[in-house]
Amino acid sequence: MEHALQPYTALVPRTDKLVVQKVGHTALVTIDNPPANTWDTDTLHGLVELVGHLGADSEIFALVITGRGDRFFSAGADLKLFADGDKARAREMASLFGKAFEALRDFSGVSIAALNGYAMGGGLECALACDIRIAERQVQLALPEAGVGLLPCAGGTQALAWLVGEGWAKRMILCGERIDGVKAERIGLVEEVVEQDQALAAALRLAAQVGRQSPMAVKACKALIQGARRQPLNSLLPEERERFVDLFDYEDTREGVNAFFDKRPPQWRNR
Hints:
Elements: E1 6-7, E2 18-23, E3 26-31, H1 41-56, E4 62-67, E5 72-74, H2 87-105, E6 110-115, E7 118-120, H3 122-128, E8 132-136, E9 140-142, H4 156-164, H5 166-173, E10 179-180, H6 181-187, E11 192-194, H7 199-210, H8 215-227, H9 233-246, H10 251-262
Parallel strand pairs: 3-4, 4-6, 5-7, 6-8, 7-9, 8-11
Antiparallel strand pairs: 1-2, 2-3, 9-10
Helix pairs in contact: 1-2, 2-3, 4-5, 8-9
């Protein structure tokens, strides 16, 4: 990396369970809620606020999220929240999980999950909300909710099936199958598998590559790629052409083309 990680001072997170740092144009978010980096109301509200702020920060092009320590990325929800069978609380938490991970999914830059340990339930759903996943080979990934009488309620049933196909989604959700990083890469759940303790470094390297792309072009490309999940191809092709033309409204487009001819790195301004 060109620079060392520094504290991100543009926002004071609403909870100290989410630690935010910055290097170059990358924000690093670390889930720090021991012992298993579970999600609770503090961290979910905090993630919504944080991702919204980072998306509006013109200096941030990529977001990396990981878990503190070497055992857990995140074990998901704290099951104590549901132990009393309170339906109103269940509705509130389902809504909050959805808002948090939908905010992550809709982050305008590139989001990368650095899977350094167990990613279970809501922990895996967090990773599924990211654009790219990098896993260490020893990690364990699962959506085990049906085993305790629940179901994935933050996009897991849809995002997992989209990535790995209906068959593997059913094996993991309906049969409760856990997989490691190697198998996750083989079935398409993660894009890269690395050795233990290497996921964060690999994710930051990839995020640095994002920093060399036009953030305005990346934003438009990401919207088009994700649009394939909900729109037919024939409607997206004209939109692709329109978004190409729309890029000429931005300074970054002129800068990118001129930098190419000047044989120099472009200086992106995210506008």
